[in-house]
Amino acid sequence: MSSPSLSSARQIENLIARYSHLVDEGDFAAFGALFDDADFVSGDVSIRGGKAIEDLVSSMLVVHDDGTLRTRHITTNILIEVNENDDTAVARSYYNILQAVPGLLPLQMVAGGRYRDRFERRDGRWSFARREITIDFTGDTRYHLKGQPAA
Questions:
Q1: Which terminal residue of the chain, N or C, has fewer Cβ atoms less than 10 Å from its own Cβ?
Q2: What are phi and psi of 33, to 5 degrees?
Q3: For the domain 8-138, what is the CATH code?
Q4: If we measure between CA atoms, which residue out of 94, 85, 107, 78 comes closest to residue 14?
Q5: pLDDT tens for each residue of 32-60
Q6: 103-126 core/surface letters (b: 16 or more CB in 10 A; e: else)
Q7: How confident is the model at residue 150 (pLDDT cuts 50, 70, 90)?
Q8: Which of 63, 138, 71 is nearest to 100 (CA)?
C-alpha cells in the first residue's frame, strides 16, 4: 500500500496506477474498495462508496474468458499537487484504453479521456476522495461495454 519512504506525490501516483491494474485485471471488489470513502463521477453518473462502484463497473464492463477485460488503461501526463498542510492533493491526467480481443483488430484504442482526482490522507495513507472521468474519444466498445450493438 503506501510507504513512508515514498513521497506523497509518488504514493498518489501509485494509487492512480493501482486503479488501472485492478480494472484491467477485472478485480472489481478491490477496484471498488479504492472508493470506499470517495465519489466516482462519470458524465451524469455520480456514486459514492466501494460496493456501489463495484456493482456499477461489474454491470457495465465485459469480463472475458480469461477473467480480465483484455484492456490496458494507460494513464499519462499526470500532474499532482499536494498540500501537505491539510493532507489533501489534486491530480489531473489523461487516459487511453487499449483492448485486444478475438474479433477485434489485434490492438485497438477503445476510449480516451481525462481524470480529475482529489485525494485525502487518512491515518497516514493517501486515498481517493473523488475521481471524475471525462470521455473525450471512443472507438469500438462492443467488447468492452455490455449492451453494445454488434457491428
A1: C
A2: -60, -25
A3: 3.10.450.50
A4: 78
A5: 999 999 999 999 999 999 999 999 999 99
A6: ebeeebebbbbebebebbbeeeeb
A7: low
A8: 71
